[in-house]
Design a protein that fits this description.
Beta-Lactamase; Helix Hairpins; 5-stranded mixed sheet; 9 helices
């Protein structure tokens, strides 16, 4: 295909080149022929004028006109005899031209050189020339030895007064021109296929060179499934678009890999968390069914079962909330929310919880802060954080909640002096189902902070945590102000 187009354009180019070149050669030759004819007519006129003076002297002039054959043949012969000396001053390119002179009727009078005799001019040429035209034509003349000679000819008429007196035909060999045409043709016929072949081979080599990494990329990509997202495609060492493509693809693979493994870890963790209460319920029922029991025994078992069922319900509720955040069309009800007020309400609601552990909880804010957000989600966000603070703080502890301004954000600090979080656990506390070991003897599923993080992100905010074991923990939430 590529080579075909190449061949076509080059052919067209060569064709135009060849035609222009030939045309130029012919034009040049024709102008030389014309130049020569002009010179001959001039010199014949000179001879004629000399003759005329002689004739005037002896009073015989009125009998002669150029059309008078006998006299004109004399002039023409004289001219042809002296021609070789006259030509010496002429352009060397003119030397090899052959001059033939015909009379006004087209009958041959004399030739300057051997040329297979043309006794009479072809009728069409004679007619055109007598009408005053320049007649250019190319002829092939066969010699006695059967050689083909190519000539370019110009035929013009010489006049006397308004009448045609004689006709001159100049012939120039086309041998040199034909040789030049031939050598150009040879060049074209050798170089054209060679160039097409060369560019074709080079082109396909280059194409295969550039496409090789793409092919290997395709091979790797074909093998990638959700099972082996950890495989990466080779990035070519070049610094081009293909390398960039490979690199971008690898980044995409990493991201997919991360979210796929997070997803499957989440499913494992969720199943595990759901299984524990179910195992307990199953065990209790099995034990209960082993023999007949009092109604008080049954009641005890049912109460315990209900407890486990409540746990299950809570886990499932939390999972549903998290799943909502994962889905692209999460339903939110964004409105202008007085954040200072929302937090105030949350703190008031947990007062009883804190009082049960004799924890001193205080909330302070310097002014009302307004943000656009979902009121319910914001309540849940701060409830989770404050509940954690109470849960992970020992009796008689202290919790401080503060709301202030920081640049374009509302900054909320939730500070406790509880058990703290070790630096090993700190990076993981926002992961789903993650609970620090120390927290194992308190109730919980490790989903609270995951939800907190999702809500903060939904509001285009940030959450930071600073903690020291046995000293306490401070969570800082930054939410963009309205
Ligand atoms: N204020 C806090 N003080 C100490 N540890 C905390 C605090 N808040 C969270 N944590 C740690 O982070 C873990 C994750 O919290 P969370 O997601 O709310 O789960 P849960 O409260 O159900 O355990 C907790 O298990 C606990 O180890
Ligand atoms: Mg919690």
């Amino acid at each position: 295909m590529y080579m075909g187009i190449m061949f076509l354009t080059l052919s067209l180019f060569s064709f135009i080149l060849y035609n222009n070149f030939s045309q130029d050669l012919y034009d040049h030759l024709d102008s030389l022929l014309f130049f020569k004819a002009d010179g001959i007519i001039d010199s014949i006129n000179t001879y004629w004028d000399a003759e005329k003076i002689e004739a005037l002297k002896d009073g015989s002039w009125n009998v002669y006109t150029k059309a008078n054959n006998k006299n004109f043949i004399k002039i023409a012969q004289k001219w042809v005899e002296n021609k070789s000396s006259a030509e010496k001053v002429n352009d060397p390119r003119l030397i090899n031209m052959i001059v033939q002179i015909f009379d006004a009727k087209g009958k041959h009078i004399i030739s300057s050189k051997e040329l297979p005799q043309i006794e009479v001019l072809p009728e069409q040429i004679a007619k055109d020339v007598i009408n005053g035209k320049l007649y250019f034509n190319s002829v092939i003349i066969k010699t006695q030895t059967n050689k083909m000679l190519h000539y370019r000819q110009l035929t013009v008429s010489g006049t006397e007064g308004n009448k045609v007196a004689y006709i001159i035909q100049i012939s120039s060999s086309l041998d040199r021109l034909i040789i030049e045409q031939k050598s150009l043709r040879t060049i074209i016929f050798i170089f054209l296929p060679l160039m097409v072949l060369l560019t074709g081979v080079a082109g396909s080599f280059l194409a295969s060179q550039t496409l090789r990494p793409v092919r290997s990329m395709t091979d790797t990509i074909k093998k990638i499934t959700s099972q082996n997202l950890s495989s990466r495609i080779g990035v070519p060492e070049t610094n081009d678009e293909i390398a960039e493509l490979a690199h971008t693809f690898n980044i995409m693979l990493s991201e997919l890999d991360l979210s796929f493994s997070a997803q499957s870890r989440f499913i494992q963790d969720a199943s595990h968390e759901l299984r524990t209460p179910l195992t307990i319920i199953k065990g209790e029922i099995e034990v209960a069914l082993k023999k007949d029991r009092d109604s008080s025994d049954y009641q005890e078992i049912l109460v315990s079962n209900l407890e486990e069922i409540n746990k299950l319900t809570k886990i499932i509720e939390n999972l549903l909330v998290l799943a909502k955040f994962d889905s692209p069309e999460i339903q939110v009800n964004i409105e202008r929310v007085n954040l200072s007020e929302v937090i105030s309400l949350v703190v008031r609601n947990v007062k009883i919880l804190a009082a049960a552990k004799n924890i001193d909880i205080k909330y302070s804010y310097d002014q009302d802060y307004f943000i656009s957000g979902d009121r319910n989600y914001l309540q849940r966000l701060f409830l989770n954080l404050v509940e954690n603070a109470i849960k992970y703080t020992s009796e008689n502890g202290q919790i401080r909640v503060e709301c202030s301004k920081s640049d374009d954000f509302c900054k909320i600090n939730i500070k406790d002096n509880g058990i703290g979080i070790s630096s090993e656990d700190l990076p993981n506390i926002f992961n789903r189902f993650y609970r620090a070991d120390k927290a194992r003897n308190t109730a919980g599923f490790g989903l609270g902070l995951s939800i907190v993080k999702s809500i903060v992100e939904l509001h285009k905010g940030k959450i930071l945590v600073d903690s020291e074991l046995q000293k306490g923990t401070t969570f800082t939430v930054l939410l963009p102000l309205d």
